[in-house]
Amino acid sequence: MAKVLIIAEHLNGKLNSSTARCVTCARELKAESIDVLVLADAPDTIAAEAAKIDGVNKVLTAANAANAHALAAIYAPQVVAVAQGSGGYSHVLAPSTTFGKDVAPRVAALLGVAQVSDIMHVDDAYAFQRPIYAGNAIVSVSAPSDQILVATVRTASYAAATNGANAAPIEALNLAVDLPTHTRFVALAQGSSERPDLQSAARVVSGGRGVGSAENFAVIFKLADKLGAAVGASRAAVDAGYVPSDLQVGQTGKIIAPELYMAIGISGAIQHLTGIKDAGTIVAINKDGEAPIFEIADIGLVGDLFKIIPELEQALG
Ligand code: FAD
Fold first, then answer.
1. Which of 198, 248, 286 should be mutated for ligand 1, with most atoms under 8 A from CB?
2. Which candidate, 285, 283, 282, 284, places its Cα nearest to that of 304?
3. pLDDT tens-digit series, residues 135-155
4. Domain ranges (residues) in the chain
5. Which residue, 47, 265, 278, 302, has fewest beta-carbon neighbours within 10 Å?
6. Span 154-209, pLDDT tens digits
7. Which atom of ligand 1 is nearest to the CA of 267?
């Protein structure tokens, strides 16, 4: 039976919902136990949040000033120590976010195992499905069952486990691990916005090259504000300098799963579509009725975005 250790993702004392999504994936493994490991300088409030996630059996904490920032080089040997310790873990999971993609490969390398990346479906505890070719194909992968399995979980494929009813015990660990000194925290450069977070928003309004300029993007921001939505963009819009790169949706941007996705002036290249595969309702506005985005859109409006958006806003009241 699988015993799963999930590496908690957190920032500024708050647990990221990617951790609860990993719990949902871990439950598909039919695990005997699911434990969450919180590495932080002050892990208590984060651990308390993790303990409430349904399906979590235990929360382990490792308080250390060196854990104040999520440095993969510092976290990885501690994860390995816990994974190989008395817990007898068979699986180590991390979300397939920037954080998880940074930490998990180091954990796998230290354990001397190959990593399974981007789990989108669990066939059994050692067999999974994951996307390849920018999401154009799904591949089934099997991993050996005689070693610890390290994997990242495609968070857009899993809803967050419910939160609130559980009260898992929290255990403070005292890890005697030699931490490397070759990596140190310098600074975190982070965009700030009053708008909903692109990766977790229920509604996203995205603009593409068709929007035409940074100034014109005001129409996208205005519509997003009206809908209480986050703003996204295609790579062409980012490359043209209309918006910053942290708004990019797609293969080399953010993979998102909002309930509503509006693609405006976006043609629907495969690299963009891979980022919105799990979106609920997709609305496309494009003046080219042949644009590929209409092949996957639930609702398509053919016309000039600068005419349609004001009409939509008026209709929204
Ligand atoms: P275009 O393809 O130029 O489409 C613009 C659309 O706007 C057209 O369909 C046009 O009809 C419409 N339009 C123009 N004017 C109006 C108007 N007034 N009203 C309504 N519609 C209008 N792309 C991503 O988005 N995300 C990624 O992560 C990503 N990663 C990539 C990774 C690799 C390795 C590669 C090779 C490419 C990647 N791309 C990515 C780029 C991708 O292939 C496309 O080039 C890009 O998505 C195109 O962006 P777009 O749809 O905004 O632009």
1. 286
2. 285
3. 889 999 999 999 999 999 999
4. 3-172, 203-316
5. 302
6. 998 999 999 888 999 999 999 999 999 999 999 988 777 788 889 888 999 999 99
7. 9
Q: Is 297 buried (19+), middle (13-18) or exposed (0-12) by CB count in 10 A?
A: buried
For ligand 1, residues with CB inside 6 Å are: 208-210, 234-237, 248-253, 265-267, 269, 271-272, 275, 285-288, 291, 304-306
Would you state the pLDDT for residue 315? 92
* Segments of the chain with pLDDT less than 50: none
Atom of ligand 1 nearest to the CA of 285: 20
Instruction: Spell 194-211 as b/e; 16+ CB within 10 A means b.
Output: eebebbebebbbbbbbbb
Q: How far is Cα 54 from Cα 56, in angstroms, rounded to an integer?
A: 6
**Joined tokens for residue 136:** 């154009």
**Range 203-316: architecture per CATH:** 3-Layer(aba) Sandwich (3.40)
> Which protein residue has the closest C-alpha to ligand 1 atom 52?
208
Task: Take residue 244 and report the two structure tokens written for it.
Answer: 């910053």
Within 10 A of 166 (CB to CB), how many other CB atoms are there? 16
Which residue bears the tokens 């979980």?
153
How big is the CA angle at 117 (ends 297 and 269), to the nearest 5 degrees?
A: 25
Residues in the chain: 317
